[in-house]
Model the fold of this input.
Amino acid sequence: MKKHALSVLAATIAASTLLTGLTTTTAFANTGNNTAQHVAVATASRYSINDLKNVKVVWTFFSGPEAQQQHVVDNFNYRNPGPYVMPQGDTHAGVKNLPTGWRTEAEATLGQVIWHVYAPDNSLIISYTVRRTTEIEGSDKIAQIKMTVNGEPYAKWDPLNKTDYDLRSEYPNGATVRFYNLPAGWTVQFTNDDDSTGGVFKGGKLTGSNAPIASDLYLILGATYDKYPQDPATPEGMTPVYRLYNPHSGLHHYTTSLTERNHLIDVGWNYESIAFNQPNTGTPVYRAYNPYNGNHHWTASYYEYTVITTKQGWRPEGVAWYQDDSGTKPVYRAYNPRNGEHLYTLNGNEYKIITTKQGWRGEGIAWKTR
Done:
């Protein structure tokens, strides 16, 4: 593997900067491999396990509000090689308080790391094993994420069991990767560098913490990450309506503007998909903005549009797109009484679930498309 291909990730996993006072640290990759067992090694030496009575094995979140706060692994005993466990996600482990002249060597495998502790005479005294929690938080979410290469689904993508990919031989002329099918509220945090890209997926919350769940660190050689998704071709005479989600406010947004869509992606909105396609001409669907709560509203009713923009404080934003006067496919509208948002969907099953199980109020058909 080329050295420079890892430079994009060097700042994220640099051993010398993660935990103050640790001998070293390491990042994990997860495959659920929990089979290795390492025990203390009896070696002829004038040093013994008793010299390690002040040693601690600790872990920390790498980023987020709890970054750099060190936690001793549960039930740690310096005489016990483990295995010990730490939370799944954006976490790193290390060995702390080694006596002067002692050192560690890390043996990192997928799903765990083994810390070999050596005395000043290079005798191995003990090996501590640290693993991810057995039940991996967010694994069901991470498994949903899909990857395309040059616009085509990549069959070898296996986010739960593989973190390193080399596309150089498969795509000698270069590869552009994109990710889709992200769970609601999750983000892609990848960075490009020379002929590689790498990063993590984040979303949700770790149990007992305000920190987000984070995937393992992925490295893809021979590729560039493009955060703007590539959508299917739009039928002739139709305009795509893009749907986005704001993980901070919980609001959805709809737009026919590719520039607006990409700007919202840049500032942290999650792109979900094309919500529906609407004709280039027809009866207008209007868009209005509420400056008090940040909501947008779309309606095919000119009367409703006039009332909310002249009497209720909404700002008129004109025609958003056109409805299909001869369309047969209904676009449903639902209302969320908790935040005042309206949601628009072509998916009858989504409409049914949110209005029968999630507290939304069904408002029937908003308009139609073909």
Summary: The chain has five helices and 26 strands.
